[in-house]
């Protein structure tokens, strides 16, 4: 099926579909209040041309990739703490007039269209565009797709897991690495969601009577409940860097 590439500057009417696709692909708590989530639509407004969409012949959204231009000096030590910080900087400050890099914060493919190369096409397009205006390429705080099955394994160890054939264990991290991306490090607190325990308990469908680490379906790490009756989800991601230009063959 031939898909057309567009973006929210050319087809702003796709905005609700982009939101719906991302929402359907993520656990609900991922869109709760957080410094980054408060600014998510600010990213659409300010950087509409960086919100890429693949649509089918009937105009239906099949996949989306969301990002924004950033300043980055190319060193691991100067990476932001994660997606919250990227959004805070990108939306609260004036847009960079000469960005060094693009930061991709989300790639989503409609579940019926997975494993068809659409995510790869979007990543390749972002790299190609970066070659024109962001010479340091593309940085991504990757949310490894199979990590929710292993919430007790530290993210550094998980990211280092390899299959018997030597390929990366996590399918989404593998896609990046096999396109020629390099793993830069861990974004330990990429997205932080702090909410009253009652809200988490309602979401889980069971009470959280005491402090400690509680398992949260769809989360990469446990939820930390503290004695002040709040629960904090601190999502770690894996920073990867794609050079600008064509992807590895
Ligand atoms: C992450 C995501 C965009 C990847 O899209 P995709 O179309 O699955 O990407 P790929 O085609 O590169 O697939 C990656 C691997 O997963 C495998 N895969 C994808 N969908 C699969 C499915 N339904 N069943 C089995 N394997 C699947 C692919 O075969 C591929 O494995 P390979 O490297 O051995 O070939 C997509 O899974 C998604 O939208 N997930 C939910 C949102 C998300 O977590 N986004 C990432 C963080 S922002």
TrEMBL record:
Source domain of life is Bacteria
Q: Which InterPro entries match?
A: Acyl_CoA_acyltransferase
This chain's protein is named Acetyltransferase (GNAT) family protein
Lineage of origin = Bacteria, Bacillati, Actinomycetota, Actinomycetes, Kitasatosporales
């Amino acid at each position: 099926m031939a898909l057309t590439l567009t973006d929210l500057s050319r087809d702003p009417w796709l905005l609700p579909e982009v939101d719906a696709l991302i929402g359907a692909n993520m656990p609900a708590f991922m869109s709760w209040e957080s410094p980054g989530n408060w600014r998510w639509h600010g990213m659409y407004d300010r950087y509409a041309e960086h919100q890429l969409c693949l649509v089918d012949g009937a105009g239906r959204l099949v996949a989306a990739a969301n990002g924004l231009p950033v300043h980055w000096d190319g060193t691991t030590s100067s990476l932001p703490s994660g997606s919250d910080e990227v959004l805070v900087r990108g939306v609260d400050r004036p847009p960079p007039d000469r960005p060094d890099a693009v930061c991709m914060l989300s790639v989503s493919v409609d579940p019926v269209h997975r494993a068809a190369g659409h995510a790869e096409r979007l990543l390749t397009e972002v790299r190609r565009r970066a070659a024109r205006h962001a010479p340091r390429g593309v940085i991504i705080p990757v949310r490894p797709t199979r990590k929710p099955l292993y919430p007790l394994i530290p993210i550094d160890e998980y990211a280092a897991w390899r299959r018997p054939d030597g390929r990366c264990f996590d399918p989404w991290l593998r896609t990046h690495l096999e396109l020629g991306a390099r793993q830069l490090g861990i974004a330990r607190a990429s997205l932080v969601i702090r909410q009253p325990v009652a809200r988490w308990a309602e979401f889980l469908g069971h009470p959280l009577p005491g402090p400690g680490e509680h398992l949260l379906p769809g989360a990469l790490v446990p939820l930390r409940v503290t004695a002040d009756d709040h629960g904090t989800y601190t999502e770690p991601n894996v920073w990867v860097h794609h050079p600008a230009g064509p992807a590895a063959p």
